[in-house]
Automatic annotation (TrEMBL):
GO terms for molecular function: cellulose 1,4-beta-cellobiosidase activity. Coiled coil: none annotated. SUPFAM superfamilies: Concanavalin A-like lectins/glucanases (SSF49899). The lineage of its organism: Eukaryota, Amoebozoa, Evosea, Eumycetozoa, Dictyostelia. It comes from Tieghemostelium lacteum (Slime mold). GO terms for biological process: cellulose catabolic process. It comes from the Eukaryota. Residues 1-23 form the signal peptide. This is cellulose 1,4-beta-cellobiosidase (non-reducing end). Its EC number is 3.2.1.91.
Length: 464
């Protein structure tokens, strides 16, 4: 919901040589070698075919430097010599290849990926955000409308204030190189990120630097807010730690990545949260928030001490991948048992599926702005799903709201008897990033066994 992430930089000093061509360049000082990760496509009979993919870390985590290796960005400020403005910055600066395990704490094995929370090397890295790739230069596009998507996840090491998030966004498959020729780095270097918060902490957007209007963060030594944001539809399949979880569709007026300016972006970093083209809140289903406090957590119905298989189904009006999205359903599988999402116990909000009626009733009862309906609701979310989306896998802590919106009482000045305020069992004093990073440096999340196929296909063999 509030994906404000942060990253490390490296300090390297040398002489600069300016380039003539305006472009966001690909570095050559460190090789970019993508870790491999497989996933499966399933048929209606439940038989699945293995696809060999790769993962790439988001460009925002990468070292950005001049041709000779001088930092273009250090801490949370831009080097004015190389980056006096957006276009000049893209002309002068390179995105460098990543050292996945030693610097970012990312490892893969066959069909799984592990993301470590704190990794200490030349600097201190906190969390990560990665995309699944089809090949060296293109993200894998997923078309899940009328289909189901499943994966296994281990959140047993994620305590209050942490978020292991797996979700889809409407990024360009090539990272933006076709639409923005000034972006030479492309998907190979993890460019083109966008989401429904229209994030303004990105270093590069649409082939340009995000230097103009950049304001360093007051509470994070590595991030800031620039004059532009990067908007697109977002389908949060999974945002969770071991105490709470949620899945949330976020439609946008425009299908696909779009650059916005200043506070007209809306979202987390803007003065008017609801002033942009996307729905920043979405329509979430969090079992705890919907009244069931014994469904999800350590030792509960869905036991977060053990690996969980998560199945998300995108049902359409005519049961085909070309119909209108009508409902998003959730199943869990543990120890060979299939468990349906818990039913809402909130008076006036019935069911355990996300659909337009559920969302309108939820907003009304919770007293939340109905930005979901404003931005097209399920139908608009379905258009994004049909158009193809990129899979994101991440681990992060929250410098904006301490992740209280996921696992505690939020807003903190709300009355806990008011429906919708209680979202998880964590204290309102939990989740402060400095505390989380100090107390849980060894935290990690593991995603594995990703499958896509017709409704019921990804777990059909289990049902037999």
């Amino acid at each position: 919901m509030y994906k404000q992430l942060h990253f490390i930089t490296f300090i390297v000093l040398s002489t600069c040589i300016l380039n003539i061509v305006w472009s966001q360049k690909a570095g050559k000082l460190n090789p970019e070698v993508h870790p491999t990760m497989s996933w499966e496509t399933c048929g209606i009979d439940g038989n699945c075919t293995t696809n060999q993919g790769q993962v790439v870390i988001d460009a925002n985590w990468r070292w950005v430097h001049s041709e000779q290796g001088t930092n273009c960005y250090t801490g949370n400020t831009w080097n004015p010599t190389f980056c006096p403005d957006d276009k000049t910055c893209a002309q002068n600066c390179y995105l460098e290849g990543a050292q996945y395990q030693s610097v970012y704490g990312v490892t893969t094995h066959e069909d799984s990926i592990r993301l470590n929370f704190v990794t200490q090397s030349q600097g201190k890295n906190i969390g990560s955000r990665l995309f699944l790739m089809e090949n060296e230069t293109n993200y894998q596009m997923f078309y899940v409308l009328g289909q189901e998507f499943s994966f296994d996840v281990d959140v047993s090491k994620l305590d209050c204030g942490l978020n292991g998030a797996l979700y889809f966004v409407s990024m360009d498959s090539d990272g933006g190189t076709s639409r923005f020729p000034t972006n030479e780095a492309g998907a190979k270097f993890g460019t083109g990120y966008c989401d429904a918060q229209c994030p303004r902490d990105l270093k590069f957007i649409s082939g340009e630097g995000n230097v103009d209007g950049w304001v360093p963060s007051s509470n994070n030594p590595n991030t800031g807010v620039g004059g532009h944001g990067s908007c697109c539809s977002e389908m949060d399949i999974w945002e969770a730690n071991k105490m709470a979880s949620a899945f949330t569709p976020h439609p946008c007026d425009v299908v696909g990545q779009n650059m916005c300016s200043g506070d007209t972006c809306g979202g987390t970093a803007s003065s008017n949260r609801y002033g942009g083209e996307c729905d920043p809140d979405g329509c979430d289903f969090n079992p705890y928030r919907m009244g069931n406090k014994t469904f999800y957590g350590p030792g509960l119905d869905i036991d977060t001490n053990s690996v969980i298989t998560v199945v998300t189904q995108f049902l359409t009006s005519d049961d085909t991948p070309t119909g209108t999205l009508t409902s998003i359903n959730r199943l869990y599988i543990q120890k060979g048992e299939i468990v349906s999402q818990s039913q809402s116990t909130i008076e006036g909000v019935e069911g355990n599926k996300v659909n337009d009626q559920f969302c309108m009733k939820q907003k009304e009862v919770f007293g939340d702005p109905d930005s979901f309906t404003k931005h097209g609701g399920m139908q608009q979310m379905g258009k994004a799903l049909q158009n193809g989306m990129v899979l994101v896998m991440s681990l992060w802590d929250d410098y904006f709201a301490d992740m209280l919106w996921l696992d505690s009482s939020y807003p903190v000045n709300g009355t806990t008897t008011q429906p919708g305020v209680l979202r998880g069992p964590c204290s309102t004093t939990s989740g402060v990033p400095a505390d989380v990073e100090s107390k849980y440096p060894d935290a990690y999340v593991i995603y594995s066994n990703i499958k896509v196929g017709p409704i019921g296909s990804t777990y059909k063999n289990l049902k037999k």
